[in-house]
Amino acid sequence: MHQIYSQISGWGKYVPDNVVTNFDLEKMVDTSHDWVVQRTGIEERRIATKNETTGTMAVAASQKALSVAGLTAADLDLIIVATSSPDYFVPAVSSTVQAALGANCPAFTVMTGCTGFVYALVTGHQFIATGAFKRVLVVGVELISRFIDWNDRNTCVLFGDGAGAVVLTPSLTPRGVLGFDLGSNGELGHNLILEGGGCANPFSQEVLDTGKHYLQMNGREVFKFATRILPQSTAKVLQHANLNLNDIDMLIPHQANARIIELAIKYLGIDPAKVFVNVNKYGNTSAASIPIALVEALEQGRIKADDKVALVSFGAGLTWASAVVQWGVAAPSLNGRETNAAILQEETAVV
Ligand code: UT7
Questions:
Q1: How far is the CA of 220 from the centre of ligand 1 (A)?
Q2: Minimal CB count within 10 Å: which of 58, 105, 119, 190?
Q3: Which atom of ligand 1 is nearest to the CA of 226?
Q4: pLDDT averaged over the chain?
Q5: Which residue lies with its CA nearest to atom 18 of ligand 1?
Q6: 3.40.47.10, 3.40.50.300, 3.40.50.880, 3.90.1200.10: which CATH number matches 178-326?
């Protein structure tokens, strides 16, 4: 029996056109551009407008990912959508995405906050590695701005909206997810919570009056957790993949705060040139942060075939999720669609 790897053969992102700068926020809450930049590194973020939903953003990113892979929605065997800001509690947004894409396959949603994409990626990888499925779409999407109290300066300056997607296909050469580290510490869950609207606090006038329908965060506690878990989980995932830090060509950390990333760089002793940062442009897009960063790194030509990329995330739960991914397919040039489609056809036929 051959070991089956799951390579990333398509990728795409979608961010709303609407840019909200720190200067815009200065007009809404008691904050300043300088405070936000110094404490978080964030300069601006994308905020969805009325016609955009979690579903529409996920579909836009997915269509791009399918196009890069040279596949259509009809080729998909499975869709996994990671989000904590779904369009509805029921039905799951994964089914909305499946229908809008025109796919005819199972679909489910993963809800682990900012770590959702990596959890979903690792889950998708299992289906490929067991031979159960050959084409899996994994989406990280978040429209968190609709769950933010725009009068709360503790949270409203931090977050942004967007989506990123990848297509996984089988490969017999080591590619895709080489190792992973997943974890959860629910005892710390109260530090990042949206209390209202679920079974514990069903919607009521009181929920609305007390603002429990908004995301609330104990920033200092999450900061402490993040700075501890980023280096720890990076070390663990490298161990699981049988690699050391020097083998890593690029580290893509969850984009929550540039200071958290700087501290992780210091603890790990990794060359900052190998660490991808775009939190300045998008803020914290939660489950979309890692796939958006991955796609941007590819667009900027910073990931080449055979590169080993570490994806390291932390978030609500509190959870953490990391994966080392070996890049397999070259970023498409103008004729990239054919290139990827040809490689894929060859690989998928063999497996
Ligand atoms: O995806 C995972 C989710 N979240 C995160 O990763 C966030 C982790 N935490 C953080 O990034 C940081 O803790 C924050 C950026 C949220 C806050 O930075 P901090 O350096 O930890 O600030 P702080 O909470 O210690 O607050 C310092 C001061 C406080 O004033 P006092 O009490 O010292 O008078 C805050 O009220 O800054 C004040 N403050 C602000 N001032 C201007 C808090 N938010 C703002 C603001 N503008 N937006």
A1: 7
A2: 190
A3: 6
A4: 93
A5: 39
A6: 3.40.47.10
